[in-house]
Specification:
alpha+beta, seven-stranded mixed sheet, 30% helix, five-stranded mixed sheet, Aminopeptidase, 510 residues, globular
Length: 510
């Protein structure tokens, strides 16, 4: 008889439960490894697909772009190029061929301002007919013509003349716009009343909710000569391109809402949209794929329907003649309203530089009697150092006030700009006619801020919006909602940022 110690196991082999646990652990490790491999393959496939599409995007060198600084806000210039080059030949009869409509202009010029600190976006549109100096050109022109030279020229114009730094450049043409709309299956818009535009081809004969294809949507967003049918009468929208910008903002919001509602869960739909855009999209050569992914990730929850949209305030002039050439209807910048919008929506405040450190020459560019002398006296009272006072060639009537500054003096020019109101714009030159670092060429209806009541000479204390103003030159006309004016005027910031009008298309009722 063999004795067995009850305290010892009868075998050293693992129990069934231990075997099962080890087996499950192995299966879990294999499953985890398999999942990891699948994710790696998917990530690699996504990256390869993203690179494939990214390489289809046209790249252009824009050396004048401002540097992005860490997590600081940045601006992307969004441009709608009306070039006919490369356009579908079948549509030439509607838009004109490249031979008939040469070059390319920025039909849409919009600044998207991104603020990483609070993940917000705002959109500021620049009217295409804004009349301002074009860098390296001896003549002034509409801002949309700068693109006819190059994207570089357009960026320089906005940075130098408006003091708005641009960090990234994105450009779409007619085809890319139509392809996006068609890939979504069209966009639904509600038309409260019949509208038409003989120039763009828009012709909506009955009110109601309409499904627009890409071509029809393009007719809508290009409509700058819109007529609406109300009470048995066709009436022209009085604000032309400015009203078009308002309608374009609404269209973008409807488009974004439709994209969000559809969810874009269908891979074929996503591929169709991306494929329809990339071949007709142009970005600056420094805009990398990682930049795009980072922006998309950080601002993925932004709702365009609630994104602030605004148009830069302007002063409207009919039949403008410059150097004996009739430019038709143009718009001038309007100060101080422009700076108020730039500050509020782009976060660009006036530099804190004392006026006593700024030297200015003042030249009479309007032909108004003794204007340069009066302006120089008003500026001296604000603390500015005055160099030459004299006369400049009168090149237009009415005349736009231009601050010409040499390289390295843009911030000083911005301080001077903040001391003036009316149709005022800046422009960088290599040398001024008087040799001063900053030269003010006075225009019609120029207004200079009155001296501050305190000893302070900070820019804020010299703003025409915070101090009583002294007018030098022509009397400032009163703004009008329905008619153009024959002299430049300063308009309230809300003048051309009105809500949708009764005839404007909008989102379909739910």
């Amino acid at each position: 008889m063999t004795y067995q110690d009850p305290g010892q196991p009868t075998s050293t082999k693992p129990t069934h439960s231990k075997k099962a646990r080890k087996s499950r652990a192995k299966r879990l490790r294999r499953s985890a490894l398999l999942i990891a491999l699948v994710l790696i393959v998917l990530a690699g496939s996504f990256y390869l697909y993203a690179m494939f599409r990214f390489n289809q995007i046209n790249k252009v060198g824009v050396s004048s772009l401002s540097q992005t600084v860490g997590s600081q806000p940045f601006n992307i210039l969004l441009v709608g190029d009306n070039t006919r080059t490369g356009l579908n030949p079948a549509q030439a009869k509607y838009f004109g061929s490249a031979a008939q409509v040469g070059g390319g202009r920025s039909d849409v010029t919009m600044i998207a301002h991104f603020d990483p600190a609070n993940s917000t976006v705002s959109l500021v549109s620049i009217p295409r007919d804004l009349f301002m100096p074009i860098p390296n050109s001896k003549t002034a022109n509409r801002v949309d013509d700068a693109l006819n030279v190059s994207p570089e020229q357009l960026v320089k114009t906005i940075e130098n003349d408006l003091g708005i730094p641009i960090q990234r450049y994105v450009e779409l043409n007619f085809d890319s716009f139509q392809n996006v709309v068609n890939a979504l299956g069209g966009v639904k818009m509600y038309f409260p009343m019949p509208v038409k535009d003989a120039y763009s081809g828009l012709n909506v004969k009955t009110p109601g909710c309409k499904l627009l294809n890409g071509f029809q949507a393009l007719e809508l967003v290009r409509a700058r000569h819109l007529y609406y049918y109300q009470n048995g009468v066709w009436t022209e929208d009085p604000l032309g391109d400015l009203s078009r910008i308002r309608r374009d903002h609404e269209f973008l919001k409807v488009l974004a809402s439709q994209v969000k509602a559809q969810g874009l869960l269908n891979p074929l739909e996503i591929n169709s949209i991306i494929g329809g855009v990339t071949k007709y999209l142009t970005v600056d050569s420094g805009f990398t794929l990682s930049d795009m992914i980072s922006i998309a990730e950080q601002f993925r929850n932004v709702s365009l329907s609630s994104t602030p949209t605004v148009t830069l305030p302007i002063a409207l002039v009919n039949n403008f003649v410059y150097d004996n050439a009739n430019y038709g209807d143009v718009v001038f910048p309007a100060q101080p309203q422009d700076q108020q919008v730039i500050d509020k929506y782009l976060g660009l405040s006036v530099p804190k530089i004392s006026t006593s450190t700024i030297t200015v020459s003042v030249m009479n560019g309007s032909g108004t009697y003794d204007q340069a002398t009066q302006v120089s006296q008003s500026l001296r009272a604000l603390g500015y150092q005055i160099a030459t006072v004299g006369n400049a060639t009168v090149r237009s009537t009415p005349a736009e006030t231009i601050i010409r500054y040499t390289p390295g003096h843009q911030q000083q020019a911005e301080v001077l700009l903040n001391s003036l109101s009316g149709a005022v714009v800046m422009g960088m030159v290599q040398h001024t006619a008087t040799g001063a670092p900053i030269e003010l060429v006075t225009g019609t209806g120029l207004v200079v801020a009155s001296p501050p009541s305190t000893a302070s000479s900070s820019p804020a204390s010299t703003s025409p919006t915070t101090a009583a103003s002294s007018t030098t030159g022509a009397k400032v006309a009163q703004p009008s909602n329905t008619t153009a004016v024959t002299a430049p005027i300063s308009l309230p910031a809300t003048q051309y940022n009105q809500p949708l009008q009764p005839w404007d298309p909008r989102a379909c009722p739910s």
